[in-house]
Design brief:
5-stranded mixed sheet, 252 residues, 33% strand, alpha+beta, 4-stranded antiparallel sheet
Length: 252
């Protein structure tokens, strides 16, 4: 996305840097490959273009009466984080103790929501994955899990010290503390649910003029001029979809 915006502004050097970074992560994504080769050609980076051509084949240029449609397809939303709890009895050397709750967040693998293929001018669009945000969220939680567990252990220790100081062997005090501990110890399940579950991209060279994009049962029409590129953004959650487009300019 940043590469497209830089390219639209005419900042080809910044666009090329971002496209090559994306190509490092997504070496098989057709839209990233095409964009990298297109900007390398416009910058006159012949050595880079030659290497890219050997690896991916010749760059297909727009004909005089053609236009380019690039689709960013956001699908579903990031899975909700769930909470897991375990009650642990903790005793001191005198046999006095309390029940402490260990509460941790986790993601349950629920499988990806299936979406039908997009159709542009009655032709199925072959899309490629740009990013799996669900996987990013799971990796983020895995990286933070050690610190989460350490904080939980410190909380249990601190609560035990508070209990010993406040209850001082009083059974009623211990009981009230156990109830308070159970009610206050909840896993932090704040997650990335404002983000799409995954994002895919697709593109097609089309005759200039009116275009028709079919998303499920919904049909979205837009126009694109010859030798121009239009970006279409699609956001789908279940049967609902939001569609928006913007003509970017002459990205040849």
């Amino acid at each position: 996305m940043s590469g497209l915006l830089y390219e639209t502004e005419g900042d080809l050097n910044s666009a090329y840097v971002d496209y090559r970074r994306a190509l490092t992560v997504l070496p098989k994504n057709p839209q990233v490959i095409e964009s990298s080769m297109r900007v390398a050609r416009r910058l006159g980076m012949n050595q880079d273009l030659e290497l890219l051509t050997k690896r991916y084949g010749e760059l297909r240029l727009l004909a005089d009466d053609e236009a380019r449609v690039i689709v960013i397809d956001e699908q579903s939303v990031v899975e909700a984080m769930l909470g897991w709890q375990l009650s642990l009895p903790v005793y001191d050397s005198r046999g006095n103790g309390a029940i402490y709750s260990l509460a941790l967040p986790y993601y349950q693998d629920q499988g990806l929501e299936k979406f039908s293929s997009l159709q542009l001018n009655n032709k199925a669009l072959t899309s490629s994955q740009l990013v799996d945000v669900n996987l990013m969220a799971q990796n983020d939680l895995s990286e933070r899990m050690t610190s989460i567990v350490i904080r939980q252990a410190l909380r249990v220790y601190a609560k035990d010290q508070i209990r010993k100081s406040a209850a001082k062997g009083d059974d009623v005090g211990n009981l009230l503390f156990n109830v308070w501990n159970t009610l206050t110890e909840q896993p932090d399940t704040r997650s990335w649910q404002t983000l799409p579950g995954q994002v895919r991209s697709a593109s097609m060279h089309v005759p200039a003029g009116e275009q028709s994009l079919k998303v499920g049962v919904e049909e979205y029409k837009f126009n694109v001029d010859a030798n121009r590129t239009v970006l279409v953004w699609v956001s789908r959650q279940g049967q609902n979809s939001t569609i928006w487009h913007k003509q970017l300019g002459n990205l040849r």
